C-alpha cells in the first residue's frame, strides 16, 4: 500500500502554523515565482545587467564626434589708463632710384645721432583700455581618426561585460531556485514527519486502550501497560519536535520567498505526482551559466591585450572650433567683435618607453593565460559535479523505490505482529518493536523522497537546465 493510503484522509493537509490569518496554497512553481520576484539577489543581478547595458552604450559613443559648447564672460575693475606725451618724430622721403622710403637726414650730430631736415609733431594722447564686459562663446568638435584599436577594444569589452551580466542573471536565478527547492522540500519533509508522528501516536494510543482494558479484566500485566505508556510518551515528544521543525521550515520558506514570516502555508494534497524527467548521461556542462561566464572572461582578457597594445600605437585625431568674441574697448571704441573658425589635427607617436609597452602587453597576455587555466580547472570540477549529480539521482531513485517497498513490508509485518499479539503468540515487546520498525521505515521513505527531489534539482542545476 502506498504511503498516501496509510495516512488518514485529510490529516493535517490544511495545517497552518503561525499567528497570522493569512494562508497561501503553495506549489513548488509558485514558491519559485515568489522567490525570483522578491529576492534581493535577483534585483541586484537585474540592476547589474542594466548597468552593463548602459556602459556598452557609453563606449559605443566613442565612435562618434564629441561636440561641446563653451562660453566665458569677464567682469573686472582693472583697466589701462596711460597718457602719451607730445614728441617730434623723424621723417622719411622716397628714394628716386628704388622708390623705397629712406630717412630724411640732414647731417650727423657730434654725438653720432642723425639730424633730420624735417620733423613731424606728435601731439599728447590719452589712452584708456577697458577689459570688463568682454565675452566669448564657441563650439568645439573632436573626432578620433585612429587610436590603435583602443575604441574598438573597449567597446568589445563592454559588450562582453554585458553578456557576463546577463549570464550572471541566469546563475543568480538558478541559485535562487535551488535555495527555494531546498526550503520547500524541507517544509514538505517536516510536514510529512508530523503526519507520521501523529499516525504513530494514534496507533500507540489505540494499543494502550486495548492493553488497559485487558489489564483491568486480568488478561494483561501492568508491565505491558507501562511499556505502551513509555512509547506513548516518546510519541508525544516526537510530535512536539515535528511541530517545531515544521514551524521553523515554514518560516524559512517564507524568508526565501520574501513574504511575511507569519504567513500560513497550505500544502497541496499530494506530492507523489511530482514529475521527474529522464537522466541524460550524454549531456555536458557547457550549458551552465558558470561555464559561459568563464568563457566570456577569457574573451575579455583577449580584448584587454588589444587594449593594452593600443596604448603604445599612434593616435590621430582632428578638432574644429567655431567661436565669437566681443569686447575690449579702447577710448570708447570696441576692438573685438568677430567670429573665427579653426581646424587642428593632432598626431602622437610613441617612440621609446624603456620597454614599458612591451612588458605591459606581456603582463596582459599572462592574465589571459591564467584565465584560460582557471577555466579549464573549473570545467573539470563542473564535470565531476555533473557526474556526482547523475549518480546521486540514480541512487536516490533506487532508494525511494526500496524504501517504499520496505514500508509496505513493515506495515504488513506490524499487522501480522498485531494478530499474533492478540492471539497471545507474541509478546507486547515484539509488537511494539514492529511498530517501531514501521515508524522507522516510514521515516526513511519520507527522507528518501525528499532527497530524490532535491537531487533532481541539483542535477538540473549541474546541467544548466534551471
TrEMBL record:
<protein>
    <recommendedName>
        <fullName>TolC family protein</fullName>
    </recommendedName>
</protein>
<keyword id="KW-0812">Transmembrane</keyword>
<keyword id="KW-0813">Transport</keyword>
<keyword id="KW-0472">Membrane</keyword>
<dbReference type="InterPro" id="IPR051906">
    <property type="entry name" value="TolC-like"/>
</dbReference>
<dbReference type="InterPro" id="IPR003423">
    <property type="entry name" value="OMP_efflux"/>
</dbReference>
<dbReference type="Pfam" id="PF02321">
    <property type="entry name" value="OEP"/>
</dbReference>
<dbReference type="GO" id="GO:0015562">
    <property type="term" value="F:efflux transmembrane transporter activity"/>
</dbReference>
<dbReference type="GO" id="GO:1990281">
    <property type="term" value="C:efflux pump complex"/>
</dbReference>
<dbReference type="GO" id="GO:0009279">
    <property type="term" value="C:cell outer membrane"/>
</dbReference>
<dbReference type="GO" id="GO:0015288">
    <property type="term" value="F:porin activity"/>
</dbReference>
<keyword id="KW-1134">Transmembrane beta strand</keyword>
<keyword id="KW-0998">Cell outer membrane</keyword>
Amino acid at each position: 500500500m502506498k504511503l498516501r493510503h496509510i495516512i488518514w484522509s485529510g490529516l493535517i493537509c490544511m495545517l497552518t502554523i503561525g499567528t497570522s490569518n493569512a494562508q497561501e496554497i503553495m506549489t513548488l512553481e509558485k514558491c519559485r515565482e515568489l522567490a525570483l520576484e522578491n529576492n534581493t539577489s535577483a534585483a541586484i543581478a537585474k540592476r547589474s545587467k542594466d548597468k552593463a547595458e548602459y556602459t556598452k552604450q557609453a563606449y559605443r559613443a566613442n565612435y562618434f564626434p564629441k561636440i561641446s559648447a563653451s562660453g566665458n564672460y569677464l567682469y573686472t575693475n582693472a583697466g589701462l589708463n596711460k597718457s602719451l606725451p607730445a614728441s617730434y618724430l623723424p621723417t622719411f622721403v622716397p628714394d628716386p632710384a628704388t622708390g623705397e622710403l629712406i630717412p630724411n637726414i640732414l647731417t650727423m650730430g657730434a654725438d653720432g645721432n642723425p639730424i633730420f631736415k624735417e620733423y613731424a609733431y606728435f601731439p599728447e594722447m590719452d589712452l584708456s583700455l577697458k577689459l570688463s564686459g568682454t565675452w566669448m562663446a564657441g563650439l568645439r568638435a573632436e573626432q578620433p581618426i585612429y587610436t590603435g584599436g583602443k575604441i574598438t577594444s573597449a567597446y568589445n569589452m563592454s559588450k562582453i561585460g554585458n553578456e557576463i551580466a546577463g549570464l550572471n542573471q541566469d546563475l543568480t536565478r538558478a541559485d535562487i531556485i535551488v535555495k527555494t527547492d531546498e526550503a520547500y522540500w524541507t517544509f514538505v519533509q517536516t510536514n510529512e514527519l508530523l503526519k507520521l508522528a501523529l499516525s504513530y501516536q494514534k496507533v500507540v494510543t489505540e494499543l494502550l486502550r486495548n492493553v488497559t482494558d485487558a489489564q483491568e479484566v486480568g488478561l494483561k500485566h501492568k508491565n505491558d501497560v507501562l511499556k505502551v505508556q513509555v512509547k506513548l510518551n516518546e510519541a508525544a515528544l516526537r510530535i512536539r519536535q515535528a511541530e517545531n521543525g515544521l514551524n521553523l521550515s515554514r518560516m524559512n520558506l517564507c524568508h526565501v520567498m520574501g513574504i511575511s514570516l507569519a504567513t500560513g502555508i497550505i500544502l497541496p494534497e499530494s506530492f507523489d505526482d511530482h514529475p521527474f524527467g529522464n537522466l541524460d548521461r550524454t549531456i555536458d556542462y557547457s550549458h551552465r551559466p558558470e561555464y559561459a561566464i568563464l568563457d566570456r572572461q577569457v574573451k575579455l582578457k583577449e580584448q584587454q591585450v588589444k587594449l593594452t597594445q593600443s596604448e603604445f600605437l599612434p593616435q590621430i585625431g582632428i578638432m574644429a572650433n567655431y567661436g565669437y568674441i566681443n569686447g575690449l574697448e579702447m577710448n570708447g571704441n570696441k576692438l573685438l567683435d568677430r567670429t573665427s573658425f579653426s581646424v587642428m589635427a593632432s598626431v602622437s607617436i610613441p617612440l621609446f618607453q624603456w620597454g614599458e609597452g612591451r612588458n605591459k602587453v606581456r603582463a596582459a597576455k599572462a592574465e589571459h593565460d591564467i584565465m584560460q587555466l582557471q577555466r579549464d580547472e573549473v570545467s573539470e570540477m563542473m564535470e565531476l559535479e555533473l557526474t556526482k549529480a547523475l549518480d546521486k539521482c540514480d541512487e536516490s531513485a533506487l532508494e525511494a523505490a526500496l524504501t517504499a517497498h520496505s514500508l509496505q513490508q513493515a506495515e504488513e509485518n506490524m499487522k501480522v505482529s498485531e494478530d499474533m499479539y492478540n492471539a497471545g503468540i507474541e509478546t507486547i515487546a515484539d509488537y511494539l518493536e514492529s511498530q517501531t520498525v514501521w515508524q522507522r521505515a516510514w521515516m526513511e521513505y519520507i527522507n528518501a523522497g525528499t532527497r530524490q527531489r532535491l537531487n533532481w534539482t541539483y542535477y538540473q542545476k549541474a546541467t544548466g537546465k534551471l
